Amino acid sequence: MIREGFWTEVFKLQGSVTPYIAGRLIAFTLFGACAYFFFDIFKIHNGLATAHYEYIGAVLALLLVMRTNAGYDRWYEARKLWGGIVNQSRNLAQIGLIYGPQDRKWREAYARWVAAFSRSCCHSLRDEKKYNEIAQLAETVGVEETRRLSDANHMPMYVVRRVGELLKEAVEKDDLDRFYFLQAEAERARLIDHLGGCERILKTPLAAAFSIKIRRFLFLYLLFLPIAIVDAAGMITPLIVFLVAYPLLALDQIGVELENPFSKSRLNHLPLDQISDNIRSNVLASLEDLEPLVPYAESPVVRPHVEKARPALVPSVEDYATIPIAPHPALES
After folding, report:
1. I need a labelling partner for 316 at 20 to 30 A (CA). Which of 94, 160, 241, 331 fits?
2. 3-state SS, residue 303
């Protein structure tokens, strides 16, 4: 989470909505210039007061902020759900690998299918179902199982079924205590719940009527803005239109971009690929055997030796008696 410098972000285009609204921004600015030249050439004075138009602009800005906040709530909720997927994937992997069978083949299959869940969720939320779109899963579960995943009705559910079958196999062979089996099943159920939350966000967009009304309001406001201010602004009318239109159009586009936090085509989409890769790396690393535990007593922390300060010597009463005292000059006189 490294935040770049002020000037870097001021002039940065990557991750900004400016390229997306550039066409609309130029169009409204040119319209403002045309309105100014029209009023200037024909010497027309509309006599409109700008104060009422400012009130309308404040209301429009509030509506745009409400829409942006609604989009950010969706983005942040999606990130929390994926945080849960990270935690539950690790928990589920540790339960099986620590308390489950010690058979190497079972452990590797279990870890790989647990690691495949997050990647399958990523592809499912992006509506990627063809083999060439999910080919990266072959590195985790193999080519043949990846082909089966591409043909499955719901990829994440196929993965959790595989995990469930491995847990069932272990508990039926008495290689996994039923208490830990129930714990693993609870973690598996939470994974499904988190996926359901992501699908709810994906399939429940913001109300279309709300978006349509705001954009119509925004269009009419920017259309009549140069007409309302041309008497007071004069030749700087296009500049004022530009400065007003830029933040309003940007807020509108930001609300659109935040609506779907999973799609790669959206700005600032969630880094699902990196999150899935981290889960896979963490889970597969758990397959490695740990070195024997070294007790603390055998490798304690060596602290540098610091000598204690010697206490100051305080003269005794007998020592004070032996100290010669010179007479004061005033007494000698």
Report:
1. 331
2. coil
Question: H/E element holding 300?
Answer: none
Q: How many beta carbons lie within 10 A of that of residue 295, not counting itself?
A: 7
Which two tokens mark 28?
Answer: 């409204």
Residue of 278, 253, 248 lying closest to 268 (CA atoms):
253
* Inter-helix orientation angle 51-99/178-203, to 10°: 160
For 94, half-sphere exposure in the C-beta direction (CA atoms, 13 angstrom radius) is: 9
Which helix (H) or strand (E) segment holds residue 245: the answer is: helix 237-259
Give Rg (Cα) of the chain.
35
Signed CA dihedral, 220, 223, 227, 232: sign only? positive
Residue 299 confidence class, pLDDT cut points 50, 70, 90: confident
For residue 305 the two structure tokens come to 């030796």
Coil, strand, or helix at residue 307?
coil
Q: Are 137 and 116 in contact (CB under 8 A)?
A: yes
SS3 track for 95-131: HHHHHCCCCHHHHHHHHHHHHHHHHHHHHHHCCCCCC
Q: What is the pLDDT of residue 5?
A: 84
Over residues 262-286, the pLDDT tens digits come to 999 998 899 999 999 999 999 999 9
Residue matched to tokens 């920017």: 222
**264-268 long-range contacts, CB within 8 A, separation 24+:** 264/126, 267/15, 267/16, 267/17, 267/20, 268/15, 268/75
Q: What is the pLDDT of residues 50-102, one digit of tens each?
A: 777 788 888 898 999 999 999 999 999 999 999 999 999 999 999 999 999 99
Q: What is the largest CA-CA distance in the chain?
A: 119
